[in-house]
# Entry
Amino acid sequence: MTEADNLKVLCLFDVLGFESLLNRIGLKKLAERYDKLTEYVKEQRGGIDIVPTPDRHVAIGWFVVDNAYFSDTFLFWTSYNKISLPHFTYLIAETICYGIEHELPLRGTLTVGEMILDGNSGTYLGKPIIEAVRTEQLQQWIGLSFGPSFSKPDFKKGFYLNTVLPYKSHYKDKANPLATGMVVDWPRRWRETRKANIRSLVSRMDKDLKFSQYYIKTLEFIDFSERNHDWFKKQNHLDYG
# Structure
């Protein structure tokens, strides 16, 4: 296996309030939600994928997403490829939206680098995995942040600006080196594809006082996203939350 074969993009999600959710709905129902989420993600992927671009052209490339889950953690990954990379951001946003619709609140991180990710053997190794876990734990909300590995020159380009958003208010410590201030703009995806009131759905999941602050910060981000719908057209006026 070559170094290029090990170059992956990893999305790590944890289920917010996992223990409380397990106690409330039971193991069987929780397993059903997990299976439905992973099946939904599989439905969104493909072999040869047609990726839309902002100027209405399309790019064709390989886009295959693998996944695994254990306890309260989901892993989704794909080979690093600049052609299909923007579509992975859409997939992440769609996954968060689907999770909210099915009361499975997800908090996570996106990292990139050399990793060994083998679901068949259960082998998961690499520094980007450690980065993903530590960055995930730094956040107080439903959503996903980019890890610092995406700040490297080789990886910082390739995402469409209408899928990401500069934001920092969800970090427990904004000064932490892991707090990149770049996140996936999943509320925009919701506004563009759904009619249900997202604020009501998020508030409905706030059933554990231990995590109430996380839901409050999620609602704040939803509002921030709406106020900065086209942030990339007014970068000088954005305050990063």
